[in-house]
C-alpha cells in the first residue's frame, strides 16, 4: 500500500494519538505504539507466565461483570467445561465461578446474580482444592480482583470485562491470568476455555504482531471498526473527533478515507484514549462531592451551634439530638424526650420551645415532685369552693397558664393511672374542665413530655397506660448518657467552669490535664448535672488557679452498692466485658489489629468474628 512503511512507522510511533491504517481488504498496514498501548497490545505486566493453553484438571477462576458481553461470547455451554451446568445463567448476569477444567469429579463453586440484583459489589471467598480464593467484582469503582493463594490479579474496566486466572492443577501455581488487550490477542474467556493457545506475559515476552492481520481479528464485532472497514472499501464516511467505543474502550476518533489517483486504497483511523480523562473527571467530581459534603456538615454544625447555643456537645450523638430538636421545633407534634437523670432533657425542651414558640409561655411541670393528690389541681386548676382549702378566687392550672406556648410534663412516668386517663383526654382534645368547673376550657398548647424511665417496661408492669404512651410518643428524642459521649466532656467543662467561677465569686480557674483525664475515665452515673456539681465542689476546694485531680471528688467506680436490679444474665455480662476489653486493647495499640490479637491471645478468625458481633469499628 505504501512504498516506505519503515519511515511511516517511525513517524507514526512518535504521535501522541493512536493511529491505524488498513488497506481496502481490511488488512492492517500501520498500527502505531500509542494505538497498541490504548488497546492493550503493548503490555508490560510485572507478573510473568509462559505461553501455553489450558489443560484438563487445571483450576479456573472467573470474574465476569456481564456474561456474554466482553468475554469472547461466554455462554452456559462454555461454563460446562468447569462443571457449571446451570441453564438459569443468562446474558448480562454477574458471575463468579471456580472449577476444575474438564474434571467432572470436582464440584464447582459459583455465584450468579442478575445485573439489577447487584448494587455495589459481588464477592466470593472459598477454599478450592486446598487453595484460598477470593473474587471481588466492584461495580462502583469498576475493577475485578481475583486473589489466589495470596496473589492478586486486578483489572479495571469501562463497561464490560471477563477476568480469568488459571492455576496448574499439579503445582497449584498460576499459569495464565487475564490482562488488558485480551480481545485483540484473542484471549477472551470463551477462547481460552475452548482450548486456544495464549501468549506469554512479562519481561522479554513477545508482543502481538498485528501488521498484516485483518482488522476484525484484532477488533471483533465493533461498529466503529465496521465503519472503518466500509470506508476502506469505498464508502464515503468521514468524521473528526467523534466519541466511539472500541473493544470496550471509550475513545475520540477521527476517520479519514485514503485515496490514490482517485481510487480508494484504504482508510486511516486516529484514536485518542479518553478513559484517563474520564477517570480524572470522575476523581474531580468525587473530590467536589466530598468537599460539598464536608462544607455542608460544617455549615450544619455551625447552624446547630447558633440555633442551640445552650446545648453543649459536639459529639456525633449530640449533633443528632440537635438535628432532631430542630425538626421537632418545626412541627407542632407532641415530643417525648427520654434519657437518664441529668442528661439535659429540660434544656432540650426549652430549646425546642425557643425555636417554635419563643415569645409565648414555657411552663415546666415536674410531675415527680408534686404529690399525686395535688397534681390534678395544679395541672388543670379549680373553681372557687371546689374543695376544702381551695382559694376563694379559684386557680388557673398549668395547662391554662401555658396557653399559646409550651408545657413540659417532666417525669411523666410518675403520674398515677387515674390521672393518666384525664391527661389522655386533654392531649386528644386540647380541652379540659377545671376541678369543680362546668365550662370546658380549650387551649392551644405544645406538649413536651420527658422521662428517665423506660415507659415500655412501665406499660408491661401496668404502671403506665399504653394509649397514653402512643399519644405522647409522636416525636421521640433520646439523649445519650455522658458516659457514651465522653468527647463532650471537654466542651462542657469549657462552658460550665467560667459560669461556676462567676457564681462562686472567685477568679477564673482552669482544669489541669491530669484532672481532665480523671474526668474522662469516670463513668458519670449522674451525667451532666453530676459534672456541674463536681466542678463547683472543685472550684471551692481549689485555692490556686488550676484544678488538679486532688480537688475532684468522684464516686468510686466499683460495685459496692450492687443491688438485685443491677444483676444481668451472666452471658450478657461476659459479652459486655469481652467487648470492652477488645475496644480498650485496640485503643491501647492505636488500632493495630495484629498487636491486639497477639495481646489478647485470639486467633484471626475469632478476633474478626468478635469485631463483627460487637460492631467494633
Task: Identify the strand order in the major beta sheet.
Answer: 2-1-14-13-12
- The shape is elongated
| Count of the domains | 5
CATH topology of the largest domain: Rossmann fold
State the CATH superfamily name of the largest domain. Answer: P-loop containing nucleotide triphosphate hydrolases
Class of the largest domain, according to the CATH hierarchy?
Answer: Alpha Beta
Strand content: 15-25%
> Distance between the terminal alpha carbons, to the nearest Å?
66 Å
Number of helices: 21
Mean pLDDT: 86
Notes on the protein architecture:
This protein is α+β, with helices and mostly antiparallel strands and 617 residues long. It folds into five domains: 96 residues, 2-Layer Sandwich (Beta-Lactamase); 135 residues, no CATH class; 171 residues, Rossmann fold (3-Layer(aba) Sandwich), CATH 3.40.50; 70 residues, Helicase, Ruva Protein, domain 3 (Orthogonal Bundle), CATH 1.10.8; 47 residues, Arc Repressor Mutant, subunit A, CATH 1.10.10. It contains 21 helices and 25 strands. Strands 2-1-14-13-12 form a five-stranded antiparallel sheet, sandwiched between helices. A five-stranded antiparallel sheet has the order 5-4-3-10-11, with no helix packed on it. The chain has a five-stranded parallel sheet with strand order 16-19-22-15-23. Strand 10 and strand 11 form a beta hairpin. Helix 9 packs parallel to helix 10 and helix 13 crosses helix 15. About 1% of the residues have low confidence. It comes from Tepidanaerobacter syntrophicus. This is Transcriptional regulator with PAS, AAA-type ATPase, and DNA-binding Fis domains. Pfam families: AAA_lid_14, HTH_8, Sigma54_activat.
